[in-house]
Amino acid sequence: MLEPRFIKAYEILKEKFGYFPFTYENAEKVLKVKYENVAEVLSKLVNAGYLEKKQDSKDKRKKIYRIVDKMEKINRLTKDKLISLLKQGADLIRTQVDYKVLLLFLFYKAISDIYLKTVEKLREEHKDLDDEDVYILANEEVLELYDIENNKLYTWNNVKNSPEEFINALNRIVELNRGKLEGLQELIRRTGLPSLFENENKYIVQQLIDLFSKVDLSSVDYDILGDAYEWILNYFAPTKAKEGEVYTPKEVNKLLAYIIEPKDGDIILDPACGSASMLIEQYKFNNNVVLVGQERNEVTGILAKLNIILHGITPSNAKIFIGDSLVNPKFESFLKELKRDKANKVVANPPWNQDGYTEDVLKNNPKHSEIYKYGFPNKNSADWAWIQLINYYTQEKAGIVIDTGALFRGGRERAIRKKFVDEDLIDAVILLPEKIFYNAQAPGIILVLNKNKSEERKGKILFINASNEYINHPEIRRLNKLSDENIEKIAKAYKKFKDVDGFCKVVDIEEIKKNDYNLNVSLYVSPIEEGEEIDLKEVYNELNKLHNEYLNKFEVVKSYLEEINKIG
Questions:
Q1: pTM of the entire structure?
Q2: Are 421 and 509 in contact (CB under 8 A)?
Q3: Interacting residues of 396 by C-beta distance below 8 A, sequence separation 6+
Q4: pLDDT band at 427 (very low <50, low <70, confident <90, very high)
Q5: DSSP designation for 531
Q6: Helices (H), 242-373
Q7: Are strands 343-348 and 267-270 parallel, antiparallel or unpaired?
Q8: What is the model's pLDDT at position 372?
Q9: How far is the C-alpha of 292 from the C-alpha of 332, rounded, in Å?
Q10: Could you give the CA distance from residue 78 to residue 233 in angstroms, rounded to a whole number?
Q11: 372 to each of 163, 259, 349, 366, 447, how far by Cα in Å?
Q12: What pLDDT score was predicted for residue 243?
């Protein structure tokens, strides 16, 4: 239920703009007198279906809002309603069906509905064209769901009633969209979807199909579709973390975006992109960027591709590669297509303490002598292999989420770390709170690399101890979470580059050298422990009372001793 204050804001906007489009700046002028956080108001109204948000056709950086009338809102599928539907789906599958089936169905239904809505629009615009020509145009605008060769349409509604047709349709869509959906067939195979239609779980799958068939996803904004997709990833993350799957919390991705600050035209790289959530958060910060990612796991890589499509990011603005970045950085070919050899910014949460990457393995990378020029780490942890790879492909700035041990371990890691410090590549080290990662209780850190340090930052490293910057996770009791206020405080401290007692400190590199290149944050700044407030008068009275009791007892004991002496 939307709070009354947001309903009031809706009424103010409706009275001012009617059903004409308006920008954030227009809304701010109208609402800022009564509402301190206009961005929050607009976000709430969009998510509740009271406002429609679209990209400005002339300036992609701007968002255009429009009032949704009440009758339209009644029939509109909001973010809350969609999440509610997905919760029903999650309850259906429980532990019996791979959760990725839910992701697959959301993607297929959404793309099918968007495709059919596009067909309707094209029919209105091109009344002289027959259905086949309209389908061909829709293929170009969305994805190829019309098979020209076989004159067949593969949308959800066309195949939902036939298990065999359903699987055939998905496989054919992969073939029709070569270059966009590689790996989708492997995802279908890994989820066991074909056999699910035949074994004891067929009723669950049919219920899932019936559930998704009830809704039309064509009118849902890409932002909401993308958030729904990530809701599924987030919902199952605690369970899948136990099986080794890694999912970076959304708020950590958001913090990285504030630190990295993607600018217009930037190329943003993530060489260990997982489901691409970190890259997508950079895109939300500034959608005039190009995203490049690589993921070693084939299934996770296709989940990343689907995630990007459902966020409405065009293929020209994003490219995901499958492969091991440490030994075979395939993304380099795309950088060359863009006439670049490095990305402007790099973000990543690579696997922590990954073993097996010995010198012999890393030498399989054709550019190993350039990338790993500071040295090869030991076989028990590839943390500093990842940091070197990221540093090599960074033109300006990088944000790396990594294990705290990378800051102080000795041996080969210390030798590599020393060179990073000596060459003034490290801009900041941010200690995160514990229990915010689904697969690790330990606190991680964000290591910020900066190749364009301002004069005030040169020869120095900022240490931020954000170990106390968290709230209790609202849904998972054993976890903590960064709030918007926590994120803002950390990001502001990074930008200001000033000392704050108990929170952050600017440290000269010479001091770090004296500490044997130890970058452990708590060595340089520790939170101020909040002492208990003491009432001196109350303490005095208590001590005085104890003192008087002592004197009374002393006199009693003294009298006993005197009596004993007399008897003796």
A1: 0.79
A2: yes
A3: 344, 345, 450, 451, 452
A4: very high
A5: P
A6: 250-260, 277-285, 298-310, 331-337, 359-362, 368-371
A7: parallel
A8: 98
A9: 9
A10: 19
A11: 51, 26, 19, 11, 18
A12: 46
CB atoms under 10 Å from CB of 296, counted, come to 21
- The pLDDT, as a whole number, for residue 244 is 46
Long-range contacts made by residues 138-143, C-beta under 8 angstroms, separation at least 24? 139/176, 142/111, 142/114, 142/115, 142/118, 143/111, 143/115, 143/173, 143/176, 143/177, 143/180, 143/181, 143/309
Token pair, residue 530, equals: 């909040």
Question: Tokens representing 445?
Answer: 């850190």
Q: What is the C-alpha to C-alpha distance for residues 218 and 117, in angstroms, rounded to an integer?
A: 6
pLDDT recorded at residue 47: 81
Q: Which residues does residue 502 pair with via DSSP β-bridges, in sequence order? A: none
Helical spans, DSSP H, in 328-381: 331-337, 359-362, 368-371
The SS3 assignment for 107 reads: helix
Contact by Cβ (8 Å): 44, 65: no
Q: Is 349 left (phi over 0), alpha (psi -120 to 50) or beta?
A: beta
Q: How far apart are CA 148 and CA 331, in angstroms?
A: 32
Distance CA 347, CA 257 (A): 9
* CA separation for the pair 548, 352 (Å, rounded): 62
Q: Calculate the average pLDDT of the chain.
A: 89
